[in-house]
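re: that chain from earlier
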Amino acid sequence: MKMIFFFIHILYIFNESACSFSFRSDTYEVLKGIKLLNTYYTLSLNHNSTNTCAVYCLADIACVSANYNMVTTQCELNSKGPLDESANIEEDNEWRVLYSKGDLPPSSWELIFRGTAGIGVKIYDSYVGTISLPTHEVGCQLPVTHNLTCTTHYRDPILDIWSSQSILKVKVAMYKDSVMVMNMVFNNTDNGLNTDWYSPDQLIYSSYTDMTTVGITYNYFSIQGDEAVERRFYINNNYNGCPFDMGWIAVFEFGFTCSYEIGLQYPAFAYMPNNIMGQWDLKAFQFADALAIYIQSN
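^ sequence. v structure.
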């Protein structure tokens, strides 16, 4: 490893511009205000350059991401990346994390949307892109399990070019106190609109054991949901009058119909906690803090 670092160091002394070109800033991404704690090697650079730190990481096959300190110019090589749910991350404004999505292992899940509960911004409009979202914290675009600051919704631009992407599967999950409380996985075989995959025909796994039972029926199963009453990402079994409505999950955007959705902090992410459907009016459901959507690509 020391020989590799020596070679890169000499290369920088004699031809720094060439080295910078070989690893241009558009080949890696920068996340500001965080650092990973999965460091295995530390270097003290003699000048301020994120490119230099990035190339040291590139030169080592064990390096998945790098921490770079904008004040001290210290460079740390990490064995994990910020998109890895098992990584240890802390918030620190002096640091930047340099990484490449191309380094994701095969079959990894990539976060493309995150909804934050109770912020007063509608999740459906945010997801389909009919409203503009404010600038988000870096924690919003990283796995919810990292428990970083996130006070808005996050939407990846890939949602605007959905049909042109090679997206194989989509996962939806809700989190309470940064712990996953439910999840579903869908095929994306039709490769149509960015809402088409959310259907019973595309469902291949659900943490709700009765959702995949033969003969189960739904009166709503879509991202748009029941538009008249603004229940989104809605998966429901039946309407028999509010006291007898049965379902699995819902995002309540603005409740005014049934007692169980009135007076909440919207959007409210409601889920049945026992891996089976429940009766809404009995308030058998609980509330999650975040809703996340991930994709798996070729």
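The longest helix spans residues 2-22.
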